[in-house]
Amino acid sequence: MSDYKLLIGGKLVDGDATMDVINPATEEILATCPRGSERQLNEAVAAGKKAFKAWAKTPMAERRACVMKLADAIEARLDEFARLLTQEQGKPLSESTAEIAYTSAFLRYLASLDLEGRLIEDNDNRRVEMRRKPLGVVGCIIPWNFPVLIVAFKAPVALLAGNTIVIKPAPTTPLTTLRLGELCAEIFPAGVVNIVTDQNDLGAALTSHPDIAKISFTGSTETGKKVMASAASTIKRITLELGGNDAAIVLGDVDPKVVAPGIFGGATMNAGQVCLAVKRVYAHDSIYDELCDELAKLADAAIVDDGLKQGAQIGPLQNKMQYEKVKGFLEDARANGNIIAGGEVMDRPGYFIRPTIVRDVKDGTRIVDEEQFGPILPVIRFTDAEDALERANASPWGLGGSVWSNDRDKAYNLACEMESGTVWINKHLDFGPNIPFGGAKQSGIGVEFAEEGLHEFTQIQVINEAR
Ligand code: NAD
Prior knowledge:
By secondary structure, this protein is an alpha/beta fold. The chain has helices spanning 38-57, 60-76, 78-89, 93-111, 149-160, 175-187, 203-207, 221-231, 256-268, 285-301, 320-336, 366-369, 385-393, 408-417, 450-455, and strands spanning 6-8, 11-13, 17-23, 28-35, 118-122, 126-134, 137-141, 164-168, 193-195, 212-218, 237-241, 247-250, 280-284, 338-341, 356-359, 376-382, 397-398, 401-404, 424-425, 440-441, 444-445, 458-466.
């Protein structure tokens, strides 16, 4: 029997089965937790459906107050949640602490938004009003890289708008989310928030369920395509936040010493398992060698260790499957470039790979063209910025990107030409709940955060009245 529980219809319940959760820093079993069944998923959706009518009619101020209470409750347990997150996810405690603190901050900011309709016309002829109504039960599908924060991208806006939700964490990182469920059980009316775990086997049942009105999905492009196909059967609303292959274009006028830490940090946060991480660097010929050397120095100096160890800067890869995948990218890097730092898995238990810098590598190789989702950074040489831009854009993805230069106009013009949802100038990986976030091309559909994100959880209704 596990002390973790699913949350279904306001009750904390055991799963129909159990599953083990592995600590990626030790490869040992961290905890046994409930594994939901299709029957339990259906129960959760039914509970969401039952609770929907009353929740949708609950004044917005009350719905807002519930989300704010959740933010307070998480903050009150910040240290405990952060520790558990490091143990199940692998990231250093400092990053887990930031993730939990951001979770509260996102809940608070997004719950403070207003959902306003609009009076379009009011005259002798007609009165036309646009309202925004909730959709119904929303399925929130969460990946393993930011298992708690990504819940806070979806839940507050879904709930504020009057929807009820079923959250499905990733199989390898369910624990902190289940702890969150304990808090939700005390705060929300029964059925408003439901949490069901799986072993990658309930996604299709959730995305095709006739009583699910919308799917808000964060994960890989491959799975996103399945979600989209599955949602088509009932014309569900979908928001897809998918993969990326963010390019950093570094112009020749920068000081490599100055820009290297920002690029390196943007590539190795959470061991590179960030959708918006720098995944390839295009560096101008004139600074290429020096930038490679600076990045290699940072990689050599990085402390890679169990995230609970004081001073650890980079933790293990989150799970064995990802570890094996990244090892494949190391082989590709060895075959197609020169590895000047890292390049090895670490000789110890746990899914540890040292940060790796690969130089003299070209487009058209796996390490450049695919999303490695690990601590490996290829650096590609260019001589003409327009050519670098074209190569950066020659990707099916378009999540983020960055331009690094001391020439503001040049950087701004290149940034505007990048085919990505977010482009930074002289930084990478900076976002917030007030800034709409979404991917171009195969990096997604729709946006999260801000009013634009909130609107995605509503249906527009027009009331057109004769005068
Ligand atoms: P994944 O696609 O394997 O899994 C994501 C979630 O989908 C998990 O909860 C999983 O159980 C579930 N799932 C699996 N099969 C499903 C199906 N057939 N139908 C519905 N759901 C299903 O992704 P992952 O490996 O957990 O996460 C890594 C990927 O996520 C990377 O590509 C990364 O770039 C992307 N990501 C994107 C963002 C973003 O906001 N754009 C944020 C974080 C991660």
